[in-house]
Amino acid sequence: MSNLETAPTELTCTNADDQAGRAWVLHPREVPLGGPRAMTVRRTLPQRARSLIGAWCFVDHYGPDDVSGTGGMRVPGHPHTGLQTVSWLFSGEIEHRDTLGTHALVRPGELNLMTAGSGIAHSEYSTSETSVLHGAQLWVALPERHRFTDAAFDNYAPPVLEQDGARVSVFLGSLLGQTSPVPTYTPLLGAEITLPSGGSLDLDIDPAFEHGVLVDTGEMTVAGVAASAGELICQDTGPERLTLRAGSAERARVLLLGGQPLGERIVMWWNFIGRSHEEIAAFRERWQHEREQPADEEYPSSGESLQYGEFPARWEETLPAPELPNARLKPRE
């Protein structure tokens, strides 16, 4: 998914100096996903109180969205660098096309992970069969040693594990004896967990991981901190056990995210992750050039190949990059 803000903020992100074991709630802000009938997403990462959870650097939560009223998801071709996108649906269906030649459908309960590496472009549209769209779009920052890796695309449908009344699907990393085969470039965890009303689940976790619990439906309490739908509970490194407790009124469904602190400064702007203002500006310039030129024209004149790949023939439009800010913003701690 693209960040469709018309004036995206340039962010220099680091993991905060944490107090071991501390837990707190991040409240989302609403962001329209483009167009006069824009679908609204709820964004909890990044923000001033927290930029990263492990290498997780971007969390959008959307729906249940009646696409007859909003038009659903309509995101034309757009670029990414230095990250992996993680698409996870609860309902609906999204058609994905990218410059690797991938044509895939994102379906509920299936992980679609796209590695941007040095550069890729993709589009996302909800399908005509979709009446209600509901899911999450997440980004993972690639570490310095792997951020220029080759672009790639992976799909995985994890099994559903029944544990103490809970239903658990592990789509990245390992939990409760389940391990995802999908490759990541830093130690990560991603799982969907559903608890019945009033239910609880004790999890053995890696004390070296930071964790985030994104509440999708119902209410959830973690480490004595309660959150409702759309909110993100953050848990710092230190604990070896995590207990999830659902509210008594209804079942609760969450996404559990975790990872070792990235330990690097990253600059996020629009759909790019880099390490400096100059690098982001170069990514933007390259994208603007490639979207305005025929697919078979090389850039630059030295003969270097297209950074973002050859656009699919089905693409009728691509997103222009917003204008960069007039002044460099100070690093955000």
From TrEMBL:
GO molecular function, one term: metal ion binding
Cofactor or coenzyme needed: Fe cation
Keyword terms, alphabetized: Iron, Metal-binding
Residues reported to bind Fe cation: 78, 80, 122, 124
Domain Pirin C-terminal: 191-291
Domain Pirin N-terminal: 40-140
InterPro entries per record: Pirin, Pirin_C_dom, Pirin_N_dom, RmlC-like_jellyroll, RmlC_Cupin_sf
Domain of life: Bacteria
Pfam family, one: Pirin_C
KW Metal-binding (keyword) present: yes
Sequence segments annotated as region (Disordered): 289-333
Cofactor annotation remark: Binds 1 Fe cation per subunit.
Family membership: Belongs to the pirin family.
Protein name, entry field: Pirin
Species this chain originates from: Actinopolyspora alba
